[in-house]
Each structure stands twice: as C-alpha cells, then as structure tokens.
Write a structure and sequence with these properties.
The protein is 31% helix and 25% strand. The protein is an alpha+beta fold.
Length: 118
C-alpha cells in the first residue's frame, strides 16, 4: 500500500465493495469478498509482541472480518480492525483500510453489543 489513502479514496473503495448491498450485513459481505480476493496472504504481522503468519481472512456471520493467524501449531482469529500491518503492508491492504473506514465508530475492534458494523 503506497501511503495513506484519503477519505475520498476509501469511500470509493467502500462504494465498489458495497454497490449492490441493501443492508449492513450485505455491505459486510461485500467488503469481505474484496478482502478475500485482493489481500495477498500469507504475510507476517506482530501481535502482542509475537510474530504470527496471517494465513487468510474469514467472515464471522453478522459480526466482523477476522484475520486467521498462526504461529507453530497455534491458530487464532483476530479482528482485522485490530491487526497491526507490517511495513511494507501486503498487496491488497487498502481493502483492510477501507473496511476500517466503513466499520465501527464507537471503538476500533469492538462492535456494539448485539450489533453489526454500523
């Protein structure tokens, strides 16, 4: 990802992903599909001071997009809004930024109780 994207650029990516969506769940699914299609995995990240490998992204129905991280035999899903990106970021990381831009405004990484992304 070459530098920070502007709000207008992020809005354009969100529009591309959600153009045919009728509600929040369909928007979430559209953003997930773009992430799954464009984000190049695997890539390395550091979570809580430990290097992990991001193997794939997954969608928790009606909830959030997660990065499936591994280290050795251990596997953990981490909300993609909370995932630290390496420098340089992997190809397709602009879709993570678009999802973060679209996502919850209350507090990054936390969904409203009983709610979805918006």
């Amino acid at each position: 990802m070459a530098g920070q994207l502007s709000d207008a650029e992020l809005d354009e990516l969100v529009e591309q992903a959600t153009v045919d969506a009728y509600d929040d769940e369909e928007q979430l699914t559209g953003l997930y599909r773009m992430l799954a299609e464009h984000l190049v995995v695997p890539f390395k990240s550091v979570v809580l001071g430990v290097e992990v490998t991001v193997k794939k992204v997954d969608l928790l129905p009606g909830s959030q997009i997660v990065a499936v991280c591994t280290r050795g035999r251990h596997r953990q899903a981490i909300g993609i809004v909370d995932l630290p990106l390496p420098d340089p970021a992997p190809e397709g990381a602009e879709w993570i930024e678009a999802y973060r831009h679209w996502g919850p405004q209350e507090r990054p990484g936390q969904w409203p109780v009983g709610g979805t992304a918006r």
